[in-house]
Design goal:
single chain; 466 residues; mainly alpha; 12 helices; 3 strands; disordered C terminus
Length: 466
């Protein structure tokens, strides 16, 4: 069975919510573990205090008591700061999530409205189509637009092939030191400045390696992509202008059939949806940074907290305490030996807690990758308009085993997107995609993932059912 664009959007967003819930849960567990590490160190210090009370020397007991008091104060200060900082990080994340939720709700409302308006235009287009079809000027414009679009598509394919040839077939030339020596000097061109013996030696090298023929081939390999790109740009500009002319004629026909209100409502929705998508992209970048900061906190890597933990470790490793522990271990069967064993148990708990926090860190890293994968796919889905109700996907497996394979890390986001793109089609023949109406040709689009993080986002296309 096939899958609608709306269904795919819903499934991906639900998967993203699941990842976020697990991120939040593990972050909180890691944070509790980081707090326990400090508390276990304080407990270890208290056990040293108990050992100190068994010492006969009052001065020694006083030193241990003062040391433990310092440790308790440091631990309390570290925990207090940690709790406050973690709460601030959580509050920031909640604020960002609330902004994303509002934006998504507004977007869904706009999508629903454009869907209703699109249905109105579909009925009106059925009445306008025969009249436009009989218009020779429109028919000629449509034919020209389709021809230009086909040429543009062919040129893009040729450009990709030419760039691959430049890279692959040009490599032997770039790897040849003699050829590149002459090439860098501009040998065989007006820019060459060799004189006398140098010129004679260069000429000898050129004859030896067949430089002139090689240079012609290398120039051709280098120039073809440049020329194709220039020509492709001109054709695409013409195709874009043709799309505008076609859309103008269609809009006029639709307006005459009573569709002006619906059409303008869709156009306004397009602007609002694009604005929401840009705002959403900025919020996603903020969330990514906020989650990264909270993760550092949860794993005990926040600078002040990490310094406090290291300071406690150094204090607990002082010579006075190590001697105290060694003496207690030697007191076989005595009270000191019992306390010494409790210290060993506390140290083991610290080690176990540290190991668990490291495991949490590894899982959070994986979840962060999965979250970003899903965000990038959702970005592309909306950019291409594939969340449009008119979009269809040939297999429900896209939100079944294929999505699960992505979440398990068995396939990459790029592979998932490539599969998505190949599965996609439109419900109506000639449907131009988001904002395209019933006759407008779709604009060119790349095939890979295109989201740029934090350094600015490409403008997102309409994702409504317009």
């Amino acid at each position: 069975m096939s899958l609608s664009g709306t269904d795919l959007l819903r499934a991906l967003e639900e998967a993203l919510r699941d990842v976020r819930r697990e991120e939040d849960d593990i972050s909180k567990r890691a944070a509790r573990g980081a707090e326990l590490l400090i508390k276990h160190r304080a407990q270890e210090a208290e056990l040293y205090h108990q050992l100190g009370t068994l010492r006969p020397d009052p001065a020694a007991r006083a030193r241990i008591t003062a040391l433990v008091r310092d440790i308790d104060e440091a631990a309390e200060a570290a925990l207090s700061r940690y709790d406050a900082t973690f709460a601030e990080a959580e509050a920031e994340l909640q604020q960002i999530e609330a902004g994303l939720a509002r934006g998504n709700a507004d977007r869904m409302s706009l999508q629903a409205e454009t869907g209703r308006r699109d249905s109105e235009l579909k009925t009106l287009a059925a009445a306008a189509r025969p009249r436009l079809g009989a218009d020779d000027d429109y028919a000629a414009r449509l034919a020209r637009g389709r021809r230009l679009d086909a040429i543009s598509k062919q040129l893009r394919a040729k450009l990709v092939a030419a760039e691959a040839d430049r890279e692959q077939k040009g490599r032997p030339f770039r790897d040849d030191p003699l050829f590149m020596y002459l090439w860098s000097k501009g040998y065989g061109t007006e820019s060459y400045r060799g004189r006398g013996l140098v010129s004679a030696l260069d000429a000898r090298v050129a004859r030896l390696i067949g430089y002139e023929r090689a240079r012609q081939i290398f120039v051709l390999l280098s120039e073809i992509p440049v020329r194709l790109r220039q020509y492709s740009g001109r054709i695409e500009a013409e195709a874009e202008a043709a799309r505008g002319e076609i859309a103008k004629a269609e809009n006029t026909a639709l307006d005459s059939a009573g569709g002006k209100t619906a059409r303008e409502a869709i156009e306004m929705a397009i602007v609002r949806i694009e604005m929401l998508d840009r705002e959403n992209g900025a919020l996603l970048d903020r969330r990514d940074e906020a989650i990264a900061g909270r993760t550092e906190l949860a794993l005990g890597r926040e600078v002040a907290f990490s310094i406090a933990a290291d300071d406690l470790d150094q204090v607990l490793a002082q010579d006075d305490l190590r001697r105290l522990l060694a003496e207690a271990r030697a007191d076989a069967g005595g009270a000191a030996a019992t306390i010494a064993q409790q210290i060993e148990d506390a140290r083991q708990r610290i080690k176990d807690e540290g190991d668990e926090i490291r495991e949490h860190g590894l899982r959070l890293r994986v979840l962060g990758m999965r979250r970003r994968d899903l965000e990038d796919i959702l970005y592309e889905l909306k950019l291409r308009g594939f969340d449009n109700p008119h979009a269809r996907f040939a297999s429900e497996d896209l939100v079944g085993e294929t999505l699960n394979a992505l979440l398990r890390g068995e396939i990459s986001a790029a592979q998932f997107w490539d599969f998505t793109r190949r599965m996609q089609s439109w419900t109506a023949p000639g449907y131009g995609g988001p904002g395209g109406g019933w006759g407008k040709l779709p604009g060119p689009a790349g095939t890979g993932l295109s989201r740029q993080r934090a350094a600015g986002h490409p403008q997102r296309g309409l994702t409504s059912a317009a």
